[in-house]
UniProtKB/TrEMBL annotation:
This protein's UniProt keywords: NAD, Oxidoreductase
Source superkingdom: Archaea
UniProt-listed Pfam families: 2-Hacid_dh (PF00389), 2-Hacid_dh_C (PF02826)
Ranges for domain D-isomer specific 2-hydroxyacid dehydrogenase catalytic: 39-312
Protein name: Glycerate dehydrogenase
Family named by the database record: Belongs to the D-isomer specific 2-hydroxyacid dehydrogenase family.
Classification via CDD domains: 2-Hacid_dh_6
Residue stretches making up the D-isomer specific 2-hydroxyacid dehydrogenase NAD-binding domain: 104-280
GO molecular function terms listed in the Swiss-Prot or TrEMBL record: NAD binding; oxidoreductase activity, acting on the CH-OH group of donors, NAD or NADP as acceptor
Amino acid sequence: MKLLILAKVPDDMKEVARKMAESIGMQAIFEEDGNDWSDVEALLSFIPKLRTMNSYISKLPKLKLIQTLSAGVDLLDFNQIPDNITVCSNAGAFALPVAEHAVSMAMALSKNLLSNHMKMKNGVFNQRSPSIKLEGKMAGVLGYGGIGREIGRLCRGIGMELQVISRKLVSENVSFSGNLDSLDRVLQSSDFVFISLPLNRYTKNLITSDKLKKMKKDAILVNVARAAIINEQDLYNHLRENPEFKAGIDVWWQEPITTGEYEMKYPFLDLPNVIGSPHNSGIVPDIDINAFMSALKNVELWMKTGKPHNVVRREDYT
């Protein structure tokens, strides 16, 4: 069985990929190996190729599985993907480093690390500058998949309480669990809100001015999911008008890998109550190998059982 890999892969990594595919009984080929893909049944793709997936599907008459190397699949046009093709995400592959990044942002904001650093740089030494004690605070986690569960584990480890928004009921180690219908309740009662939802038809523009106003005046919001879950202008205005409210932003509305360029319509990084990072929360040593192995194991599961993990619900995107 042939596996087509659509990703820019260094030569040494290609050899590793071929051996890994061979170990599960598949022949791995790459886009640059040629365009005779008539007998390809499975495809692995990273983000840059997701936007143009339709042009590949038309050349793959036997394709049965699309497995993404990324956790998000929001760039795929599901209306153009035949129903007989199973689509699987790589949910969970980046969960631990992304969760660590999210909690690190929350801690840096709660302890005013960046603002105090800048004040000291300018000659201001305020030893009485207050910060927030995290133990006993309520963390609201929107989206309780791989990343959300890791965020929850880390928050519990420092003594925080936890409530979650999840498609499935969560009964262990949480103060409250509900679906999106309970979003207002979680926003109103959380000191920290972590966004780890997928971007789909139900979550796009989910957090608007109305939702932000329901949150506590001094809440800390961290987004490591997709920028478009939050209305960009509404978030900027809320941060500017409410200096006690803080935000950690790892994902942006215009990024090179998705829109072709990095552009910021609103000067978020000029605000003292914002910490930003360049969507690098999942970039740690060996993550590429680990993500590839995770995706490949799911291809193997599909090949052997026909029941892979992380099958995407098309109705969420169409």
